[in-house]
Amino acid sequence: MSSTPTGPGSASGAPNLPAGFTDTFSSRFVDTGDVRLHVVVGGEGPPLMLIHGWPETWYAWRFVMPVLARDFTVVAPDQRGIGLSDKPAKGYDSATLANDFVRMMDALGYSRFGLYGTDTGMPIAYALAADHSERVARLAVSEAPLPGITPSPPLFLPPVLNERFWHLTFNRLPVINELLVRGREDIFFGAEFDVSAGTKKLPEETVQYYLDVLTSDPDALRGSFGFYRDVDATIAQNEQRKTARLPMPTLGMGGEESGMTGAGDALKLVADDVETVVLPGAAHWVAEQAPEALVSALTAFMKPYRDEAVAS
């Protein structure tokens, strides 16, 4: 471990946090041996890791972290390539990203943990649960498909869906996407935040904060596309993973204006013990749009894990 991170992107430098947030949570860097990851940690109880989605950072969890911290030690990292974590040129397939987090949890001293991933965090969390099933007590996911497992959408979608999902192919481009977006991050990412928010838009200052983080590091734009550029490797990995069912209980969640039962339907293709929850008042940004409903569903699902850990 190295010095405590400060400034934009860190817990101490993030704006508009819930009252008392930094009394409970602090940023740190964790050296995994391959990359240095930024992670925000705090709370009491058994560990619960939260994996954010694109194009967000750990900051997406700020509303749910204080409540979860009453029952869990909350571990909210930035993915490789994002936020204050290292941004290497390679290693954005789901196996490598999952291995990053396993090594991070090793460094933090946690051998077994609860796990929740949303958006791009969903296939990463699935990879971690499939490849390291002995480490994951319970798995929750939301708001994404599982590449190589769930059917791919057709090339030509209805206009409303095309506006929502065109970035999935655009983000995979090797160079041209960076050339087109650089200097216009507010247009590109602003549109992504807007269209995925449904009727309950994120505050302007929240979107601006994400934009500030994305433009503060010259490698951040490339890093933000990393997961998508390596999706072919993830698809090949998932085709192997789906030959074995997940052994742990799972929960699929979705916003009522977005994924709805999609995450639960995806889990049913790879797991037998599946619960599904639709979160009222949310579109895609579930932790920011419906934090109370999300905490309620996640806490109830994770309760047997917490009770077992506390009893032992």
Task: Give a structural overview.
With 312 residues, the protein is an alpha/beta fold. It has a domain of 213 residues: Rossmann fold, CATH 3.40.50.1820. Strands 1-2-4-3-5-6-7-8 form an eight-stranded mixed sheet, sandwiched between helices. Strand 5, helix 4 and strand 6 form a beta-alpha-beta unit. Helix 3 packs across helix 4 and helix 8 packs across helix 9. It starts with 20 loop residues before the first helix and ends with a helix.
Question: What brief labels describe this structure?
Answer:
alpha/beta, Rossmann fold, 14 helices
What is the second-level CATH architecture of the domain at 21-152 and 231-311? 3-Layer(aba) Sandwich
SSE topology string: HEEEHEHEHEHHHHHHHEHEHH
- Alpha-carbon distance between the two ends: 29 Å
The top level CATH class name of the domain at 21-152 and 231-311: Alpha Beta
- Residue share in helices? 40-55%
Look at the helices and sheets and give the structural class: alpha/beta
CATH topology of the domain at 21-152 and 231-311: Rossmann fold
Strand order of the largest sheet: 1-2-4-3-5-6-7-8
Biggest beta sheet summary: 8 strands, mixed
Radius of gyration: 18 Å
Count the strands?
Answer: 8
The proportion of residues in beta strands is 15-25%
Unreliable parts: none
Total helical segments: 14
Kindly state the mean pLDDT as a whole number? 97
CATH homologous superfamily designation of the domain at 21-152 and 231-311: Alpha/Beta hydrolase fold, catalytic domain
Q: What is the approximate shape?
A: globular
